[in-house]
Design brief:
The chain is built from 22 helices and 4 strands. It is mainly alpha-helical and 510 residues long. Strands 1-2 form a two-stranded antiparallel ribbon. It has a two-stranded antiparallel sheet with strand order 3-4. Helix 7 (153-186) packs across helix 10 (229-236). The protein starts with a helix and ends with a helix.
Length: 510
């Protein structure tokens, strides 16, 4: 088990390199087999994960540039456990449901390379190596959107790349400065997050460094007003690109806030709660109004993602176990549900080559199975009780209720209003008379498409009724995170001196 995390990271990339030797006619089966093996490896890691331990497990530390303290360090805890599982699962499901036919070989190999970078982001604990994989994830997604996307694919891919790459530069500057601060404090170069968590920084320094990380993470989430790249990326990306983008890539930003911003800058995190909550609430309200005006089904789901990300931000900056655990659960639930919705829209697009609501109507008459599954995922998206979407939203808002009951009630009310545009879209598309003669001959989903959707349906029900498998490990690691934040929150005691406390190391060992 010492190398399980390294195998998880590099196996997809190794398989992708070998994939160049695979015949194009067999590449779909090859991609599904590789992603299935990767998923089984992650399940094996989960089985051997000790649920009683809150700290990092399966840690591996290999020096790379020792003179500057850059090491290949990987580890996993309850915060990242199910994000890794969701990454491997959704990659496998997206390849099973893949309907793209043009240059299929290079698309599948790009997805496998992308899977490597996404898993690495959730596992790497050296901040320089984390940043490397963070940036590498842009390359395959840029390629996927730019080659297999719609008419505006070049514009959408370049906008996606420029937004995320430029924002990450601010994060890189903050990373380099933190490494220098650690060297000045201890006399040793290190970019290990475990070591950095022992530093207590002056309040003023925390504020500036928080902003640097915030810009990098906020664009990736994306938060308002940095979200404008997302509708274009989703609207022009092929179905598999939208599924992976919504299910996994967006979670890299929210994960960054939990893993880096909260423990490194606890006082700044508290200071910026009103600011973060304001942006989250604006996103929830704004996306409800914009999505209601959309005529493209895919754009509606894209704007709903911005809304859900707003709820996740509220949960994270509740700064309590309920809120942060609920936010982590909502990351998982949104990944499953939004991935399924984008896959469903992609299936109808393959049949009709349009995503406009006006081109549909009465679909339930000719595609009853499709209509039932779409309705089920729609209910999970709007947070219907006993579905996976309810648990995360409820806990995130419950956690933020301790900070501000009024803002929480406002967020809850606007989420209900946000459900209106989803239900209106469903009513116009699936009920009433058949509005277009071309819709009469549409074939209902079957075969490979059902194989991709049924596992998602099972998870929506299973974790909606029994969320403990996700919440139990998350709660332990989140409790440890909050303990570290409380120990490091010494704003009143020091504003000018940088301290490295051994007591924090004791907390990490408990």
């Amino acid at each position: 088990m010492d190398y399980i995390l390294t195998i998880l990271i590099f196996f997809p990339a190794f398989a992708a390199v070998l994939g160049f030797l695979v015949n194009s006619n067999s590449i779909r089966v090859y991609g599904i087999i590789v992603s299935a093996i990767e998923f089984l490896l992650s399940v094996f890691m989960w089985i051997n994960f000790d649920l009683s331990i809150a700290d990092m497990q399966f840690i591996q530390d290999i020096p790379i540039i020792s003179s500057y303290g850059i090491h290949y360090i990987v580890g996993i805890d309850g915060i990242s456990l199910f994000l890794v599982l969701m990454t491997t699962f959704m990659t496998m499901i997206s390849l099973i449901g893949l309907n793209e036919k043009r240059d299929l070989k290079y698309l599948i190999l790009s997805v496998l390379f992308l899977e490597m970078t996404m898993i690495a982001v959730f596992l790497v604990l050296d901040v320089i190596i984390f940043y490397t994989f963070w940036e590498l994830s842009l390359v395959p997604m840029l390629y996927i959107i730019g080659v297999w996307g719609g008419k505006l694919r070049i514009y959408a891919s370049i906008k996606f790349f420029l937004y995320t790459f430029t924002a990450s530069i601010f994060m890189l500057l903050a990373i380099l400065y933190l490494g220098y601060v650690y060297f000045q404090t201890t006399g040793i170069w290190s970019f290990s997050l475990i070591n950095w968590n022992t530093m207590i920084l002056p309040f003023d320094m925390q504020l500036w460094l928080f902003v640097g990380f915030f810009i990098g993470f906020a664009v990736k989430v994306p938060m308002f007003p940095f979200h404008t790249w997302l509708p274009y990326a989703h609207g022009q990306a092929p179905t598999i690109g939208s599924v992976i983008l919504a299910a996994i890539l967006l979670k890299m930003g929210t994960y960054g806030f939990v893993r880096f911003s909260l423990p490194l800058f606890p006082d700044a995190s508290v200071y910026f709660i009103p600011f973060m909550a304001s942006l989250a609430l604006i996103a929830i309200i704004y996306t409800a109004m914009v999505a209601y005006a959309q005529e493209d089904m895919k754009q509606i789901i894209a704007y709903s993602s911005v809304s859900h990300m707003g709820v996740i931000i509220l949960g994270i900056f509740a700064l309590n176990v309920e809120g942060i655990s609920g936010a982590i659960f909502l990351m998982i639930s949104h990944g499953i549900v939004s991935g399924a919705l984008f896959m469903l829209v992609g299936m109808i697009y393959d049949r009709r080559h349009t995503k406009l609501i006006k081109d549909f109507g009465g679909l339930a008459q000719v595609m009853p199975k499709f209509a039932v599954i779409f309705a089920f995922m729609l209910m999970a998206s709007v947070g219907l009780p006993l579905t996976i979407g309810f648990v995360g939203e409820f806990l995130a808002l419950l956690g933020f209720f301790n900070y501000s009951p009024i803002l929480t009630l406002l967020a809850g009310f606007t989420i209900i209003l946000g459900a209106v545009y989803m239900l209106v879209m469903y009513k116009k598309s699936f009920f009433g008379p058949l509005s277009n003669e071309k819709n009469k001959n549409l074939k209902d989903i079957k075969g490979r498409e059902l194989c991709a959707l049924i596992p998602l349906l099972i998870l929506v029900v299973l974790f909606g009724i029994y969320p403990k498998p996700i919440l139990q490990p998350a709660d332990k690691s989140v409790s440890r995170l909050i303990n570290i934040m409380q120990i490091k929150s010494v704003k009143k005691q020091t504003k000018t001196k940088i301290i490295s406390l051994n007591s924090i190391k004791k907390v990490q060992n408990d």
